[in-house]
Amino acid sequence: MKNQGKRLAALFLALAVAFGGLGLASLPLTRGAGSGNYLEAEELRLDDGFAIIETQVYPEWSEPDYTREDLQYEHYEFSRFQTAVKTFLREIGLDREDMAARPTKAADAATVEAALNSLLLEYDYITTLNSFIQYQYSQDITAEQVSDELTYSKTLALDVFNEMLEAMQGVQNNSVLGPVFDSVLGEAKAEDLRESVVLTPRQKTINDEITKLEQEFDKLGDSATGRKGEIYLALVKLRNEFAREEGYANYYEMDKDQTFGRDFDDADLQEYYAAVKSSLVPLYFVLAYSLNWDSIENFEFPAGESATDIVERYIGNLSSELGESYSYLLAKDLYTLGDSPNNEQVSYTISLPYFNSAMIFAYDYGDASNLSTLIHEFGHFNTAVRSTGDAFFSHSNIDLAEIHSQGLEVLFLPYSEEIYGSAASSIRNYTLLNLVWSILTGCLYNEFETYVYQTDNLTIADLDKKFRQLSTDYGTGSQTGQEWMFWHMYHAPLYYLSYTVSAMAAASLLPEMRRDWRGAVDKYLKLTSFGEERYPFRQALQEAGLPDIFEASSVAAVAGAITNFVASPLTLVPEEANANAPTPALSPAATSGRPTISLPEYGTTQTQDSQVPSPSASGGQTAPTTTPDSQTAPNTTPDSQTTAPDEDFSDEVWNGDSSLTLRDRLAMLPSVLRYIWSGEFWSDLFSALKNRPGDIA
To answer: Contact 508/549 with Cβ under 8 angstroms?
Structure first.
């Protein structure tokens, strides 16, 4: 089925929903043969009959032996790390003041490796402290002492990275120890270290200025749009200057070149944008009309239950290994629901490399979205705690990371009837709406930011005009032209691209879920078992058995699958959920590593050294191979997009407060009529008429 036909079918369905309502049939889930690494289900069953499904997809894992009480922040002086560097060099016979000199003692590979591991562990500790202070800041953005310490911590991180890089490159360039050091690092790490450069003094100053502006933005109220605009333009100017210090034309070019794991280019994105506009914009109207906002807003968790209880009830039915990670999250008290007015209005998962652990901070919206946020963030958490590797040489593939989170939300959809009862259809469609919203706004904001960072001398009026134009293109509408003034634009530039490509990849699980439920779960687990470093984005999808989302046919298939899910949602009952096809467990050799090491059944076996990317400061720490403040904080995956569809959108689409009134539905007609009167409508109609009726789904 071609894109035009899918789009036309979605439009016709939208009109039917607008004036007649849409009854959602609950169909039993078709049981597939199953293709995953599943063992026999245990006799142990959860409270409502859903069994724990034993899986062995991830490498063996022992949960870290740390509790919330162990995770304490302390002020760290730079001189302490300088001492650690001198100790490292002394143990291998070098002096910090003259690292080119002949070593004062012989140092074999074992000695060098032991000394290096101690230094890397100290670096992990500093990175983890940075995570702690970010976590504290999120709990009270008005605490001046914490804000000041966060600023200090970010500056410290840059100084530590430079000191670390200079010392390691000094050893690498030593004529005697260099070959030994390279053999310890491995070929890939050694090459990446050799190609890295330290930050310039101006780049360090720029990062300090960026941090101060970000914190000022955090404290501004909704009405301070003038100052918000000034801050944004100042941030764009600073980030472009940072990029020019490194030899790039602008920040966009630097981000494109340095973002890890992107095996797609601008041409691929342009084709993707066109396919999304063709197939997903009409579908957006479908979901907008089908929602019953009253049932969503009035939903309450059963008495005595919370979002954490509900996830616990079903997560083991997807995979016992996911259940293990979730039990660890709760047992160690690593989840915080921020319910204070002083909380930072963002949700994220932040890793703690020193402890091989992670934490979740979730802003409390006080409604059913707390559950979807927890599911989303747990997808990140599971990957984080099952990954290994030091912070200095690690990379985050943010595009894959968001599949780990959004894919888990998709897999929870068939449990909606069990979780939400009479509100299931509305909340399920709301989840699908959020998925479509992520796809549309991910494209919209990436186009917007690409324009911003590549265009000189912009004014706030220029930004508003461009945003209105793109909002029209993607059907989201704009009331003020300033809906772009939210957290990600200031703290995580160019991050929104990850939301659209990952949401599209997550949505590609929907057709598989209908064909083979356990097969879909297996593909998700397989993808997450790769971690974020083994494969670039498109290759990871291919290795996991998922389609190439940059193909227009894949985008159209996703639109059709979402439309089908609205019309005929899959509903899991215990008998279907507990069905699985046993397959042999992985061999001991395959499970002895970690997600950063290729497992034989997932692809070509590789050595660990060949997979480690270039060294970088962790997460938000700006380093030669990373972008400045590209994330919330070190090792942070920022989520809970500020402009959710029920918060910031145009009256042309829906009001977001309750079910659409007739007046609201009529308000949408201009957008629909513009499409009908356009040349695209007649092209779509002609294409649709050439297809069999059964093809329109």
So the answer is: yes
